[in-house]
Amino acid sequence: MSQALVTANIPVPSVVGSLDAYISAVHRIPVLSQEEEQALSRRYLEENDLSSARKLVMSHLRFVVHVARGYSGYGLQLGDLIQEGNIGLMKAVKRFDPDQGVRLVSFAVHWIRAEMHEFILKNWRIVKVATTKAQRKLFFNLRKSKKRLGWMNAEEVRTVAKDLGVPEATVREMESRLSGRDVGFEAPVDADEDAKPAPAAFLVDDGADPYDTVSDADQSDNELETLSAALEKLDDRSRDIIQRRWLNDEKATLQDLADEYGVSAERIRQVEANAMKKMRGLFAAAA
């Protein structure tokens, strides 16, 4: 098969720029049915049809975003993880066999995660030492201020904090980052059962069937978008009543809103009922 599949010959929406715009764009790409997926896969496998491969890649970009979000705790940029995952997705499309009886997403998840794991491994040493401008300034000043390799005593912490004009707790936090040792991403081959788990042991596993996972996540995203769109169709008073009665953490009562708007509680209930009826119609139309 052609190496072109993992090069620019299969263009995907660029992650560079607005990440929100990219995520919104890939979620607008239609999801393929199993029959469409198999037909495209066979066309690519048998005829080396790159347009079919491109459709397979594009329809699964939303799943790469979903997987990348599962690794947000590693201190790396979401956009970088998505780019690496997209490479894994293209490799998976190249190797996918439609006759195996599984969905492409279930096969691709291993390739997507493999690329992300490799990226995390390469960047593990530089994660979260100093991530803000203030932390970088403290990082370099603290390196110059430390007089020995060991931990600073209380007097040294007070002196450094005073000299740099920062709280003592901030100095201790940065010192712990500077003093932390790198750890192996994967456990050594000869590690015993009592050894502390390596970071690779904590990588996310979203379930045995990735298709169900991405389908549920996609449905949730669509429902939120539909809800937001429905709220925008309401007038200001109706939107405020629905928001405060049903969506806020602290729910308002009918009487609370009645007192605020200078009407009866029954009138607030009527406005709420009419707004809910209108929103249900919008939900039905979007289904």
UniProtKB/TrEMBL annotation:
Protein name from the UniProt record: RNA polymerase sigma factor RpoH
GO cellular component, one term: cytoplasm
GO molecular function: DNA binding; sigma factor activity
Gene name of the encoded protein: rpoH
Source organism per UniProt: Dyella thiooxydans
DNA-binding region (UniProt annotation): 254-273
The keyword Transmembrane helix belongs to this UniProt entry's keyword annotation: no
Top-level taxonomy: Bacteria, Pseudomonadati, Pseudomonadota, Gammaproteobacteria, Lysobacterales
Domain of life the protein comes from: Bacteria
Positions occupied by motif Interaction with polymerase core subunit RpoC: 80-83
